[in-house]
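STRUCTURE:
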């Protein structure tokens, strides 16, 4: 089956299950990326196998393995699960030639449309687990035109003097998320986080807000505005994309309404800027964030399946 046909059929199949998914074009080999193709019966699959490496002190290092092997895939034909199984087997052969066996700083990542259930069993059989989700919230989903007031909660834009508070909240969130494998607890994480937050707070209008509960700063939310989200906007069929970077609430303030107030404020800001959708990442297994975000109007768009180490 020709690569153009695979891409076209794959796009049509996904469009039928989720209209917010973007279209597909045939994969092309590039530096650190090869195209793998397999056929089984009257079905076929194409995959772009790539590798990304980051330094331990890089700004994005806390959120990923230092070496990520990624497989973007396209499935066509009446038996997509069988085609996926064959493609994963082919990719495993490739990984055994390029990845170090047992290295826990390597990960094999497969992004899949969340509503595309075909092949989930095959993913599990190859040792993958659904780890991280890109969730989407279409703009102005049955919410008030202005943020709701929450008793005792005041939300204000962060200032440079809030750096210590922001770092403490960020580290508490990072420590909790590390339990679910979506972030990494390594030496130097606090310094990386502090540098990023300090740069945000230097902006004339920092994209970060602090929530005070009866005068105590116990929560924060940060966003990326439309125009700053080119790195992720291609994952959704929308013209103007906002991104909710982080929302952290101190343990002492959980279930107080602080988180909902912060999310409502962030959505109001992005809706006012004309965002068609808001995206965010969350840990699939997190028992707090998953129900919270879906109560705020989000739903899964992409699920990132991971195996770590990449080769066992």
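SEQUENCE:
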């Amino acid at each position: 089956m020709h690569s153009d046909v695979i891409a076209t059929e794959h796009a049509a199949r996904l469009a039928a299950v989720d209209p917010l998914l973007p279209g597909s074009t045939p994969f092309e080999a590039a530096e650190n990326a090869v195209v793998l193709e397999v056929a089984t019966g009257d079905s076929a699959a194409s995959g772009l196998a790539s590798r990304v490496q980051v330094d331990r002190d890089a700004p994005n290092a806390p959120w990923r393995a230092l070496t990520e092997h990624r497989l973007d895939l396209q499935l066509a034909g009446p038996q997509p699960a069988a085609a996926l199984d064959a493609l994963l087997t082919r990719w495993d052969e490739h990984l055994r030639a390029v990845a170090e066996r047992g290295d826990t700083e390597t990960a094999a990542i497969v992004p899949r449309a969340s509503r595309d259930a075909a092949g989930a069993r095959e993913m599990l059989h190859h040792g993958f687990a659904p780890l991280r989700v890109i969730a989407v919230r279409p703009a102005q989903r049955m919410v008030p035109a202005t943020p709701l007031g929450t008793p005792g909660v005041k939300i204000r834009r962060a200032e440079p003097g809030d750096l210590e508070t922001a770092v403490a909240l960020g580290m508490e969130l990072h420590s909790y998320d590390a339990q679910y494998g979506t972030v990494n607890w390594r030496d130097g994480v606090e310094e990386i986080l502090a540098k990023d937050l300090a740069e945000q707070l230097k902006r004339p209008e920092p994209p970060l807000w602090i929530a005070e509960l009866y005068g105590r700063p116990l929560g924060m939310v940060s966003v990326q505005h439309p125009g700053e989200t080119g790195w992720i906007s291609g994952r959704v069929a929308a013209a103007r994309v906002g991104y909710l970077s982080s929302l952290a609430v101190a343990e002492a303030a959980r279930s107080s309404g602080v988180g909902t107030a912060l999310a409502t404020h962030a959505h109001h800001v992005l809706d006012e800027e004309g965002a068609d959708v808001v995206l965010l990442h969350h840990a699939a297994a997190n028992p707090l964030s998953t129900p919270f975000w879906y109560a705020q109007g989000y739903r899964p768009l992409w699920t990132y399946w991971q195996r770590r180490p990449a080769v066992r």
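REMARK: The radius of gyration is 21 Å.
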